[in-house]
Amino acid sequence: MLQSKAFMKKTKRGQVVKVVREHYLRDDISCGALCCPSCDKEAACLSTSATNILILDTNVTLHHIDLLENNAINDVVVLSVVLEEVKNRNLSVYNRVRALCSNPMRRFFVFANEHHKDTFVKTMAGESPNDRNDRAIRSASLWYQKHLGKGPPILLLTNDAENKRKALQEGIRTETVQTYVESLGQPELLDLVSQVADGDVADMEVEDLRPSKKKVIYPEHRPMSEITSGLQRRIFYQGKLRVNRYNTLEAYVNSESIDEEIIIYGRINMNRAFDGDVVAVELLPEDQWKEGNVLKLAEDEEEDESEERVGLAPDSADAVPHLSKRKSGDLETKVNIRPCGRVVGVIKRNWHSYCGSLEPMPMPAGAGGTVNALFVSSDTRIPKIRIQTRQLGNLLDKRILVAVDSWDRSLKYPAGHYVRTIGDIGDRETESEVLMIENDINNRPFSEQVLACLPPLPWSVSQDDLNCTYREDLRHIPVFSVDPPGCKDIDDALHCTALPNGNFEVGVHIADVTNFVLPGTPLDDEASQRGTSVYLVEQRIDMLPKPLTEDICSLRADVERLAFSVIWEMTSGAEVLSTRFTKSIIKSVAALSYVEAQARMDDSRLVDPLTSDLRNMNSLAKIMRQRRIDRGALTLASAEVKFEIDTETHNPLDIGMYQIREANQMIEEFMLAANISVAEKILKHYPLCALLRRHPIPTPKMLEPLIRTAAAVGVNLDITSSKSLADSLDNAVGSDPYFNKLIRILATRCMTQAVYFCSGELTPPEYHHYGLAAALYTHFTSPIRRYADVIVHRLLAAALGLFKLPVVFHDKVQLNSIAENLNFRHRNAQMASRASVELHTLIFFRNRPTDAEARIVKIRSNGFIVFVPKFGIEGPVYLKEREKKGQPPPKKDVIDWVVDEEQQKVSTRDGKKVYSVLATVHVHIQVVEPQPNRTKLELTLFA
């Protein structure tokens, strides 16, 4: 049966057009119930003994996904009309629903009601899309009731008062989520019920959480139509809100339409926006803009009511600190004034589940009923969240997961609901789980479907592999690998053989992961979603199952392995005469650590072939590295640290800066060369769908803090090009041996992130990698731990004519989606790694108060931010004693500190004490708990 389905669509040019599509209807679509005598049972999963078969409306599905994921909820029909609307409104929830529907251990069935002739409904004249979809849900519910007859009863779950009223009129059994969960007789499930109101039916039932008519705390958000108009007229500015990690009462919005960072000061001006939300901002009058040097380090304690009132009204004198002015002749000029604004609307929410703990509180009388509690996130940028719980006694000493439901303008804090318990507060495994959840790291075991894609163990190179016409046998070549100590997932190896003509044959051999990870398989889908392996201090979260990462694909010593090789002929001056690519079979002669490789090269007594190859390769690498630097490549630095971990407790025993050796740089150089060679090859063959990696040029505005800091210590940085900046950094030397590295660390922080992209989406000049000074770049050399490299291996194989190009490369939308996910996963992996370092640093210093040398990296009016090189620690140091909860206020600070923004220093007014940027200070490091259940490192000055 054929129906025409029409809808209106707005084009990119703003024109509204009518789209008519053919819609096929069938009568043989299964209902999914095992008790049904007439429908196909192949995909059926709804139990014959079910108390109810549940049908959900869209809002219930969107707002109660945490409840639906609980094992107590089963025998659920997910209508296609609901699934499509969820997909359009929240892709994350959609993926979670799809996971439930594909889980054989859960009884969730997708019913294609939009394609069944008895459940499809046409849009009536004047009917809104929402009303039409609600009618489609009721139509499907009624059909199920009639279709199953005496089978399990059908129950429609909806919190929408009007939808419920109409359902009851039509003879459909219906309940709210709250009443249904109450009927299950499992009180703990009530904690999972979302506190968002979908209509009049949803009742908060707790006086404390009801919006108060007496008091309005936050301004009303503007309607989306007004926001859209305001953005077009440049009255409002759109951007992502970023809350200052050192001061949660300050946030920043970078907007493409204004060449300036807008400061949002105070909770009221943030207007219920969370860190990461896309917001619309209105600028405050200029007389309320802030001077740059007034930005303060945060106080650790929770803001009180006086702080909440900061910026309450745009015309209030207390909205922002008064501006400082300098007299120039008869004129007063504003100095370092930065625009301030307020949030007028949230365009896209960044709400998700947050890890933290409940604020300590006494157990109420008659424990066991519903109580209100305040949740404090581990992330200080997130406001407290009010939840209702029936298990307070079990949660007070636990890390828990809480989801945000709503934030009414009459409530100081957002409302949310309990999701699950993670573990005991302070436990290392619990805190590691927290950082993985916060960074959306998938550390779940691989499914049976994924593991079924792996070849059986033990695996070895087969005769078919040896006979393969496109695979070259390179087992006779002395290939070796150089990696960090203890590395098991070895995905790259090299060789460097002297040729009779005086040149060298140099090869980079990469694990042939795509021989085992085939497109479209569950293994490939899982790797695509994970995007990258994640390296934490004490563990590795693999992108691929361990049989692949540590055995089948790992290029271990003395075993035959499949590889994808890039082989050059080079002169002794590192000039490339020829390049070829081939699938290969190799047998590594040695798996060295960086320390071992460096020791071999440095020991003049060693003259064996492997050591000679290492030295030849290192000589070539030095020439290649200098050539890159001459071309403008930047040599940056980061504050990487390494831990010595106790093998039994997994706690840190020692901490220190990571040491870079020539061996590290040698390997890096040839990996870079291989990636560039592959980038050139795949772009030549596939100019519209090559996956490349670019590093955008930093804007002068981004480099301004670096330039100001360098100028304050007498260093002039030329940023006109990467070459000029590289030369300037080379010349930035001082008597302090750590000075140059510190400047490079600060330069690294001013850079944009390198990102993956599809070549067809940008013009060739935009392909440029600023940091490497390379016209083209990609990732090819780590397919065991990066899915981007898997994509590139497939492109290269197709470019060589070995395999057909997978269909995904013909779908621009899907390819761009893959690139976006890779960027997202890469950033999250970096953040998780840093969080793991911070966690283990806290554990290390928990019982080890220490004194150390530090460098000042930022100056503020009440202190400065320092970096401790020995431990890679960065944090605030206060110049004024702060008031602490539960203690008498400190004596009034008689020292008046003055900030010189231009010279980047803070001093007493009499000039007796001066602290300058990049100067050395000594700090005391200790672990403190300024707020319950929220420990941190405290850095204090000592004489």
UniProtKB/TrEMBL annotation:
Keywords, comma-separated and alphabetical: Exonuclease, Exosome, Hydrolase, Magnesium, Nuclease, Nucleus, RNA-binding, rRNA processing
The RNB domain sits at 471-802
Q: Name one Pfam family in it.
A: Rrp44_S1
The molecular function terms in GO held by this entry are: 3'-5'-RNA exonuclease activity; endonuclease activity; RNA binding
**Cofactor(s) the record lists:** Mg(2+)
Q: Where is this region: Disordered?
A: 298-325
Tell me the ranges covered by the PIN domain, including all copies: 52-165
Name the InterPro entries for this protein. Answer: Dis3_CSD2, NA-bd_OB-fold, PIN-like_dom_sf, PIN_dom, RNase_II/R, RNase_II/R_CS, RNR_Ribonuclease, Rrp44_CSD1
Name the PROSITE patterns for this protein: RIBONUCLEASE_II
Localization, per the record, is: Nucleus
| Gene Ontology biological process | nuclear mRNA surveillance of mRNA 3'-end processing; rRNA catabolic process; rRNA processing
* Record's GO cellular component terms: cytoplasmic exosome (RNase complex); nuclear exosome (RNase complex)
UniProt-listed PANTHER family: EXOSOME COMPLEX EXONUCLEASE RRP44 (PTHR23355:SF35), RIBONUCLEASE (PTHR23355)
Assigned protein family: Belongs to the RNR ribonuclease family.
Protein name from the UniProt record: Exosome complex exonuclease RRP44 homolog A
Organism, by scientific name, is Adiantum capillus-veneris
